[in-house]
Amino acid sequence: MNEPADEGVESPLPDGVLLTVAYDGRSFSGFAHQPERRTIAGELLAALRALDPTIREIRGSSRTDAGVHAFGQRVAFDPSRVIPPRGWVLGTARHLPREIAVRRASLVPRGFTPRFANKGKRYRYLLLRDLVRDPFLEGRVWRVEQLGDDASIARAAAEASLALGTHDFAAFRSAADPRENTVRTIRRLVVEVDRDDPRLVRIEVEGDAFMHNMVRILVGTLVDVARERLAPGAVTRALASKRREDAGITAPPDGLYLVSVALADEGRDAWPVEPET
């Protein structure tokens, strides 16, 4: 005969949940919660609380700015209800605006914080070289007319190679970034024309971590060299001087996408299950 459970013994709390979230950032004041402003975190937390009202907070991997987009933002939280990963993905879909989608969910230890488990991030910046605007790309690219010839793209690609490796990127952060440690490692930074639409130029950036506006300032510097507003070698000069004024402009948020965040723990029982590659 089974013995009755001890009275007063609480059931263990369910695992934490890790989400992969995609969003079009045009209508939002960034990822992080801001009082009286529409944010990604605010909309996502409201959708999660519709399924489990006890959820107190969500923990994101990147505080993307207003207007910045994401394919692979990572967000963790601690529920009190036992809901499988599939339930979190499909359940939040009923409560999120069209601009935000939970693309994947998995189970992780409670208290898991994606920012502290970060193994590297990948960003993409899209440039449009066109004399007139494209309504289907409005708010999703930075239109730069002066990138029309191959020589300008070659200048940007050559300048990008100067940022590879581990450097002090103090010149490539906004004045609002208070961090004292400004050494970062960039593993990949390439400039390439899209094969399917030659009007589009992709800048792919991968690194261990990034400071506020770092990617946008890097892109602005490459573009300023490409259109000959800065002399070649601007990246090297800014790295050496550590002065913001030696780098290029800050590219607008429109063309920036957080593509993916690699984590030390990707969780278990993920849904949907990604096919092996």
TrEMBL record:
Gene3D superfamilies recorded: Pseudouridine synthase I, catalytic domain, C-terminal subdomain, Pseudouridine synthase I, catalytic domain, N-terminal subdomain
UniProt key word Isomerase: yes
InterPro entries, alphabetized: PsdUridine_synth_cat_dom_sf (IPR020103), PsdUridine_synth_TruA (IPR001406), PsdUridine_synth_TruA_a/b_dom (IPR020097), PsdUridine_synth_TruA_C (IPR020095), TruA/RsuA/RluB/E/F_N (IPR020094)
GO biological process: tRNA pseudouridine synthesis
Occurrences of domain Pseudouridine synthase I TruA alpha/beta (ranges): 21-110, 164-261
Binding site for substrate: 123
EC number, as in UniProt: 5.4.99.12
Complex formation: Homodimer.
Organism: Polyangium spumosum
Role according to the record: Formation of pseudouridine at positions 38, 39 and 40 in the anticodon stem and loop of transfer RNAs.
Active site: 65
Sorted UniProt keywords: Isomerase, tRNA processing
GO molecular function, one term: RNA binding
Gene behind the chain: truA
Source taxon at top rank: Bacteria
Family under the similarity heading: Belongs to the tRNA pseudouridine synthase TruA family.
This protein's name: tRNA pseudouridine synthase A
Reactions accelerated catalytically: uridine(38/39/40) in tRNA = pseudouridine(38/39/40) in tRNA
